């Protein structure tokens, strides 16, 4: 069982979370509960939890301070799930830099909690599937992190105790949550055999973040440069054919020392970023990476985002596709860094989120999309990000269109009341549309959709009903009745009346006369 530490200053929430799901059913157990970050740090020494679920705002030490202490002071990469309220969402985004695994909006939804725990469980399952040589496996994990300093990487390479020269290949999986070390070991065996590489000359490790590091002693099979590239593509094809997923592969130069191997790992980290900008799975060689331009950090608001906002507000899917494509083409052409792209997309979704919130719309899908960007933007290929972001924009456009219809349906009720009070006036659809600041054609469509009757027909209906009342209860002449209900032409009125009632106003009045003046 994976051990969970719950951290929240409200006892009711701690108790509620503990009862929300059957934790053991999903492979988890709650080992302890803390009322703030300070108490959580003390309990961590006793319980060594595998997962932390924490609130943000708490006394003494809040959730962000707790995560910062776990990451920076204790150097632990324990998965963290943040609990956040709607008003705390801006605050929660500060946790991005601490690699928070998931955000759950309070009150916590049962299915969302299960989904978040399942993702963490599957990732930890991979992380625990390292080779028996776990010390080397942990070193590989640190070597594949861009945040690890070069000096530390040299020391880590020394700890591998590998024989030199050695060739490093790093495979970057794009969808790795269900991939285990055993699976990879078996389906890569034919590749080693095809290139006459015995197991004693190949060491490989799988990391929880989807990296497979392969250390090869090429002189054992006398691999030429061409054969090295052929081997790299053979590995890619094996992954694609077996796992049915895309991957990228970087090849370092032949390393003759821990220092050179550290350089190769450094290049692999760079390649993992550059691979996001490539249109299809490929092999990136160390020499190629050195020729690529550095990434840019351009945070100025792009005018295209304003255009995108307008296309979303107008629910124009084709325009959205064009603008989103332009935005991501700009990111690629200008080599905008993944972290900067994340800021741009996140900032835009926050702006749209406020717009939808003002319309009293459902902001949960937008929050989920923003969280998804937080978790995947720096590890997902640009073209996949583009399609996902476009789908999000189109979904928001549909939501806004629906909200507008709902709001306008309320306006239709107002228009109905207006017609019922002013039907006797000279009135047209254009006049009413202008009074309510609406396009007359759109108003006509909306009115018919809600009332299931055309506006003009409804107006006639209201006028004729009032005319019937006047004919029953007064001695007004037909022309006078016509004028009182909004018809200046008695003949036109008579035609409309007969169409709706079945006989003329005069016949209607005469037919009802005995009821008005019953015989004594």
Automatic annotation (TrEMBL):
Predominant localisation class: cytoplasm
Residue numbers carrying 4-aspartylphosphate: 55
The organism's place on the tree of life at top rank: Bacteria
InterPro entries with a match to the protein in the record: CheY-like_superfamily (IPR011006), Homeodomain-like_sf (IPR009057), HptR (IPR051552), HTH_AraC (IPR018060), Sig_transdc_resp-reg_receiver (IPR001789), Tscrpt_reg_AraC-type_HTH (IPR020449)
Keyword DNA-binding appears in the UniProt entry: yes
Residue stretches making up the Response regulatory domain: 3-121
Keywords on record: Cytoplasm, DNA-binding, Phosphoprotein, Transcription, Transcription regulation, Two-component regulatory system
PROSITE patterns to which the protein is assigned, alphabetical: HTH_ARAC_FAMILY_2, RESPONSE_REGULATORY
CDD domains per the UniProt record, alphabetical: REC_YesN-like
Domain HTH araC/xylS-type: 413-511
Locations listed in the record: Cytoplasm
UniProt-listed SUPFAM superfamilies: CheY-like, Homeodomain-like
This protein's name: Response regulator
């Amino acid at each position: 069982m994976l051990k969970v530490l719950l951290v929240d200053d409200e006892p009711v929430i701690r108790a509620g979370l503990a009862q929300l799901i059957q934790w053991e059913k999903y492979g988890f157990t709650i080992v302890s509960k803390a009322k703030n970050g300070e108490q959580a740090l003390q309990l961590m020494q006793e319980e060594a939890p595998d997962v932390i679920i924490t609130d943000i705002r708490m006394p003494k030490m809040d959730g962000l301070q707790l995560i910062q202490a776990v990451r920076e002071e204790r150097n632990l990469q324990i998965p963290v799930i943040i609990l956040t309220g709607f008003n705390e969402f801006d605050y929660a985004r500060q946790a991005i830099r601490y690699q928070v695994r998931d955000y759950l909006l309070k009150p916590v939804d049962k299915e969302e909690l299960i989904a978040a725990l399942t993702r963490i469980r599957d990732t930890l399952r991979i992380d625990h599937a390292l080779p028996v040589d776990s010390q080397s496996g942990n070193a590989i994990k640190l070597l594949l992190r861009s945040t690890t300093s070069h000096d530390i990487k040299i020391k880590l390479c020394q700890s591998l105790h590998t024989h030199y020269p050695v060739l490093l290949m790093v495979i970057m999986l794009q969808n790795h949550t269900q991939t285990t070390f055993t699976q990879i070991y078996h389906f890569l065996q034919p590749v080693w055999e095809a290139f006459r590489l015995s197991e004693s000359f190949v060491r490989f490790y799988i990391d929880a973040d989807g990296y497979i590091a392969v250390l090869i002693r090429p002189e054992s099979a006398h691999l030429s440069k061409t054969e090295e590239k052929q081997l790299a593509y053979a590995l890619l094809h094996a992954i694609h054919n077996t796992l049915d997923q895309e991957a990228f592969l970087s090849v370092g130069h032949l390393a003759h020392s821990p220092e050179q191997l550290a350089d190769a790992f450094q290049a692999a980290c760079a390649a993992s970023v550059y691979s996001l900008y490539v249109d299809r799975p490929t092999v990136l060689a160390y020499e190629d990476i050195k020729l690529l331009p550095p990434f840019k950090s351009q945070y100025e608001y792009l005018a295209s985002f304003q255009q995108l906002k307008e296309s979303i507000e107008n629910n124009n899917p084709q325009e959205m596709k064009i603008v989103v494509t332009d935005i991501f083409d700009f990111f690629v052409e200008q080599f905008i860094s993944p972290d900067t792209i994340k800021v741009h997309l996140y900032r835009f979704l926050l702006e749209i989120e406020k717009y939808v919130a003002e319309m009293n719309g459902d902001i949960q899908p937008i929050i989920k999309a923003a969280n998804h960007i937080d978790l995947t933007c720096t590890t997902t290929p640009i073209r996949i990000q583009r399609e996902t972001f476009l789908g999000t924009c189109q979904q928001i456009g549909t939501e806004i269109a629906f909200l507008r219809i709902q709001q306008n349906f309320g306006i239709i009720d107002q228009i109905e009341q207006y017609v019922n009070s002013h039907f006797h006036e000279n009135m047209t659809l254009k006049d009413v549309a202008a009074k309510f600041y609406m396009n007359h054609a759109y108003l006509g469509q909306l009115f018919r959709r809600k009332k299931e009757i055309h506006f003009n027909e409804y107006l006639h209906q209201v006028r004729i009903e009032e005319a019937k009342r006047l004919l029953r209860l007064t001695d007004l002449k037909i022309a006078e009745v016509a004028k009182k209900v909004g018809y200046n032409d008695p003949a036109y009125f008579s035609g409309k009346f007969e169409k709706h009632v079945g006989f003329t106003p005069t016949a209607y009045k005469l037919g009802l006369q005995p009821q008005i003046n019953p015989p004594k």
